[in-house]
């Protein structure tokens, strides 16, 4: 399952530096000029999961395999991108292919790094980016609606639903509001997602601060956090430059660096976990002597569907799932101890898998 979070923002706000730190590579060229990232760089990262290490230690697993997700470094948007300014059409297309969007805002002052609009104002930056995405969505809807209206007159039920959803989204966009504020009925969510509206995607606001503000944030990041809260979203404070330097250090050196900065863990860990949560994802585990592995599923998935991420045959031939709560697995020192304590449950096809479940699937091949 490949889940993509697109890293979006104006030029020179730290997107490529953040991407480099995330992937621990220099795959994205970080340079002090607009459009240094022309093609979207995609990096796969491990989701930080301390529970997995604990499970592996208890089971004596030879290998640890974490869950993974993808981050896409998308070149900087500028005012007029929706009309093709600054390679805008190409960049907007790259965003459309992502499942969620991370808005990186510049929350630091550095005269050596040019700001494309000549000022440090993260809320204005957000407004510029969001406006361009909303204008692109409006253009997309205005092209689509006439065709749907014709099909609706021919009693096309699918077209009727799509038209209704388009009109709901357009109403918000006409008011200067993003399409994600419209919450369709659960049964219509898939059809709404099929519209591929840029501003319908879930968002996380990333405040890129200077190193001195990495632990506490600053006046700029405080404004973004207030803005995010008002828009029912989350904000993460991170120093991209520091994270890039941390990524190049050995574990002991990195820990000393973190402690000196007043941090208990890298900001990237928070960012990845928030991105994971933003996509509505959760983790279950399979554990044994050979490997301890984290599997990614959507929240609300049943046991058979969750088994299917391991192999399609697991879902087709599902019989039952032997399930142990993570806390019980740890408290009773593994599968055998949990069994003896009566903590292993046999769950059927209707069971909704919970985050942290340790599972073993029985199926007909």
UniProtKB/TrEMBL annotation:
Gene3D superfamilies: 3.10.20.30, P-loop containing nucleotide triphosphate hydrolases, TGS-like domain. The keyword Metal-binding applies. Residues 280-363 form the TGS domain. Keywords: ATP-binding, Coiled coil, Magnesium, Metal-binding, Nucleotide-binding. ATP binds at residues 12-17. InterPro entries: ATPase_YchF/OLA1, Beta-grasp_dom_sf, G_OBG, GTP-bd, P-loop_NTPase, TGS, TGS-like, TGS-like_dom_sf. Residues 3-258 form the OBG-type G domain. It comes from the Bacteria. It holds the Pfam family YchF-GTPase_C. Residues 232-259 form a coiled coil. Its cofactor is Mg(2+). HAMAP family: YchF_OLA1_ATPase. Belongs to the TRAFAC class OBG-HflX-like GTPase superfamily. OBG GTPase family. YchF/OLA1 subfamily. NCBIfam families: redox-regulated ATPase YchF. PANTHER family: OBG GTPASE FAMILY, OBG-TYPE G DOMAIN-CONTAINING PROTEIN. ATPase that binds to both the 70S ribosome and the 50S ribosomal subunit in a nucleotide-independent manner. This is Ribosome-binding ATPase YchF. It comes from Candidatus Phycosocius spiralis. The gene is ychF.
């Amino acid at each position: 399952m490949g889940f993509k979070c697109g890293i979006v923002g104006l030029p020179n706000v730290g997107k490529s530096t953040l991407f480099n730190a995330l992937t621990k590579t220099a795959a994205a060229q970080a340079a002090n000029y607009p459009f240094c990232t022309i093609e979207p760089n995609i990096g796969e990262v491990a989701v930080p999961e301390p529970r997995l290490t604990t499970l592996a230690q208890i089971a004596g697993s030879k290998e640890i395999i974490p869950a993974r997700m993808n981050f896409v470094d998308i070149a900087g948007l500028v005012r007029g991108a929706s009309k093709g300014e600054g390679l805008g059409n190409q960049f907007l297309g790259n965003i459309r292919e992502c499942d969620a969007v991370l808005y990186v805002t510049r929350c630091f002052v550095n005269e050596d790094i040019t700001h494309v609009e000549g000022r440090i104002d993260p809320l204005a930056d957000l407004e510029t980016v969001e406006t361009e995405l909303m204008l692109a969505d409006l253009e997309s809807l205005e092209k689509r609606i006439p065709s749907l209206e014709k099909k609706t007159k021919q009693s096309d039920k699918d077209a009727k639903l799509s038209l209704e959803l388009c009109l709901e989204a357009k109403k918000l966009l006409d008011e200067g509001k993003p399409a994600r504020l419209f919450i369709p009925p659960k049964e219509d969510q898939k059809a709404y997602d099929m519209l591929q509206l840029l501003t319908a995607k879930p968002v996380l606001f990333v405040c890129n601060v200077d190193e001195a503000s990495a632990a506490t944030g600053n006046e700029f990041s405080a404004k973004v956090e207030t803005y995010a809260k008002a828009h029912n979203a989350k904000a993460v404070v991170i120093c991209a430059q520091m994270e890039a330097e941390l990524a190049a250090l050995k574990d002991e050196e990195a820990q000393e660096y973190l402690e000196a900065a007043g941090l208990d863990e890298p900001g990237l860990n928070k960012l990845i976990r928030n991105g994971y949560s933003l996509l509505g994802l959760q983790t279950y585990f399979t554990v044994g002597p050979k490997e301890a592995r984290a599997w990614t599923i959507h929240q609300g998935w049943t046991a058979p569907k969750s088994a299917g991420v391991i192999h399609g045959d697991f879902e087709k031939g599902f019989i039952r799932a032997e399930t142990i709560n993570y806390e019980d697995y740890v408290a009773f020192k593994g599968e055998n101890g949990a069994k003896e304590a009566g903590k292993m449950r046999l769950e059927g096809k209707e069971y909704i898998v919970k985050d942290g479940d340790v599972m073993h699937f029985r199926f007909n091949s």
